[in-house]
Amino acid sequence: MDAELNTKYDTKDLKMEKMPEEKQEETDKLVKAIGQFGKWQLMLWLLIASPIKISSAWQQLGIVFIAPATSFMCEETNLTNIIEMNTCYSDCVSYNYYTDFENTIISQFELICEKAWLSNFTQTICMFGVLMGSIIFGFIADRYGRRPALLISCMLLLVTSVGEAFCKVYWLFTAVRFFIGLATAGTMLCSFILMMEIIGPMKRELMNCLCALPMPVGQMLMPLFAYFLRSWNNFCLGVGIPHVLYLAYFFILPESPKWLISVGRLEEASKVMTQAAKWNNLPTDNMLDIAKSIASEKVNSTEPLRKATYLDLLKTKVLRINIFGSCMIWFVLGISYYGSNQYIGQTSSNVFISVLLAGVLQIPGILLSGFFCRYFGRKITMISFLIVCGGSNAFLVVPEDWFAVRLTMGAIGVGCASGAFATMYMYTTEMFPTVARNMAMGASSTVSRVGSMLAPYVAGMTIIAAWLPPVAFAIVPIVGAITCYFLPETRGKTLSDHLS
């Protein structure tokens, strides 16, 4: 009798020990069906993620060449005899403009003197569009799917980026810039979420790096457009025309099979899975049965499927901690990333070289992000990047004569901020379930845009004291590192589908 009891007890223990391994196998059924990373995923990265990221750099940072530094001098006055450069006169009849470009929005719309603030206001409105787009397209993508949200944002970006070049009135130009920001946010968020949902856990770090690298590449290409297209409208047209590629997305862009399964559209999911398996030379049999099996594991079939809302991100303690922590870190990165880029831009009088350099310096940070995330985890990687970024920015308090030190520390700050941004994109997708993932990314990105809009004002505190901006840019990343301490580690974990 004792022997029988012991046998039963041992068998029970054995089953309990094997359960985690079996559970891991069950949750990886989608990955087994379509592959961790194959020709299908690579094709979508080349045709979708890369062009979108390159374009996002052009649209968010293009203001550098649309409204570059422009000097002016009064050409004719009614009363004043002595005329000085960059000085406004109430009796001036007309002004001449001096810049490296044939025409800028400053000279086109006469944004000088009492209207000088309008050139920065245009960028603020564009970033406000990015902020709103993060919310709107995050909701659309989670409610109606990644494919429709991405198609809408791509078509909106195609129309507005080309139409921008033909705006002859300042306020119309600024309104179009708002919709460009709106569309850019949608393309960035939806494409990234789609790519992360079709990749296996073992290749997530690789895909995250691949999705992040085109951004600095786009920034490095941008000076070439500006150098050969020396007027603001030609530049806008030059970076807008490549968006014609987006028309092909109506034929090649798939829906996320993970999202389709999460909302119960299993037949559609099986078709996408079959297509992926064919590309990756994997078996294509019984895809619908596999989709049904995955769906049955994720949610009780007797419960009706419910659409998630932004309020669902606050309903459980875990999600509340994750969303508040994520938003705080994205806010920190918004200030740190754009603040670091602004510093690099101030180290050279040649705008073409400074923008190119800022793009080059981001690549090492992104590559290190993938390596550290793979071997040390997301949490440690984020904390390390943020601490080094803060420490590097602290060295910017040295005198301006120490040019080499300031440039080196600024370069390290840019690289760390870029690496942290790349890490946080992946980290955020892993902390939230499929039905609310885009909304979480949208909310976090929204807060980041607030930080990016504050960055120029933080940098402008030099008028109060020269040491204030470096100190601010040093403290802010440390606050982000402390916040990250309270977030969970997500390395190697399967992406959840439903709200717990």
TrEMBL record:
Its main location: membrane. The keyword Transmembrane applies. It is found in: Membrane. The keyword Nucleotide-binding does not apply. InterPro entries: MFS_dom, MFS_sugar_transport-like, MFS_trans_sf. Pfam families: Sugar_tr. GO terms for cellular component: membrane. One of its GO terms (molecular function) is transmembrane transporter activity. Keywords: Membrane, Transmembrane, Transmembrane helix. Coiled coil: none annotated. It is a multi-pass membrane protein. It comes from the Eukaryota. The chain crosses the membrane at residues 121-141, 148-172, 178-199, 232-252, 321-339, 351-373, 380-398, 404-427, 439-458, 464-487. Residues 1-23 are annotated as: Disordered. Residues 64-492 form the Major facilitator superfamily (MFS) profile domain. This is Major facilitator superfamily (MFS) profile domain-containing protein. It comes from Spodoptera littoralis. The lineage of its organism: Eukaryota, Metazoa, Ecdysozoa, Arthropoda, Hexapoda.
